[in-house]
Here is the input.
Amino acid sequence: MRTTLTVAALFAAGTAQAQGYPTKPIRMIVASAPGGAPDILGRAIAQKMSDSLGQQVVVDNRAGASGLIGAEMAAKSAPDGYTLFLGTTTLYAILPNLKKNLPYDIRRDFISVTQIAGASNVLVINATVPAKSVAELLQLAKSKPGALNYASAGRGTPAHLAGEMINVLANVSMTHVPYKGAGPALVDVIAGQVQLIITSPIAAGPHISSGKVRALATTGAARNPALPDLPTVAATLPGYEITQWWGLSLPAKTPRALSERLQTEAVKAVNLPDVRERIIRTGAEPVGGTAQAFDALISTEQKRLGNVIRKAGITLED
Here is the structure.
């Protein structure tokens, strides 16, 4: 009886709290610098949620340490509905497989709100590489083990895993060359210092159009709407799929009534025509699903990407 009364009391308290909510601005911690995809997505959502909630949703960029600074800050924030966290594939699914002593636990410290968007990337090669398809690229990699180099924005990034997934599934040995950011990595692919990179269509698009790099395929389960003429890597290499995705979470123990209100408002924002158009312009696809669907995505991707990490022997130096 006491347990029943306690649950009822907590529910009543949460409902009462939600009735006057929000009474002050809400902070949205974005674990990246201004101008990147997470920041663009966060600001698009925050603006519309501000209009709908009647209080400002203020983007707070907390870049550094692959997003760990922002994730830790969000995890330690009060669970009162006034702190949202916008995280990435790296923070939700990759780093939990690579670092034992993370300053947060995605299951213990957060509850899901919604996935905002997802995007497949594009595999591009230097224009002088003698391959016109993924099949030809794999043949080249098999004929010259270790000779093909692929660039990434650093160890443990989605681009790193994307290259290693090819190595694992195709049983080839391309060599990883990490850079301090996707920009310098792409520059060296264009210059021919490395042969290929898997990167965003937005970043690679102008160089594909100019002929400086050759696009072979995209990395999702289905064709990327931004590059509809390109096949998927999976069409040649079954089982291959790696995408980037972004979503909102709240500190654990945030009252359910508040998390449900924020989920409703975030999904409403994602589905507004001008927001959808803005997301699509970044090369991503809007999602705006349920909290349960976002939970399932995190669990599935943690396991799937963890398998790639273990098979490839990827480690990070602390």
About this structure: The chain has two domains: 2-119+243-312, 122-235.
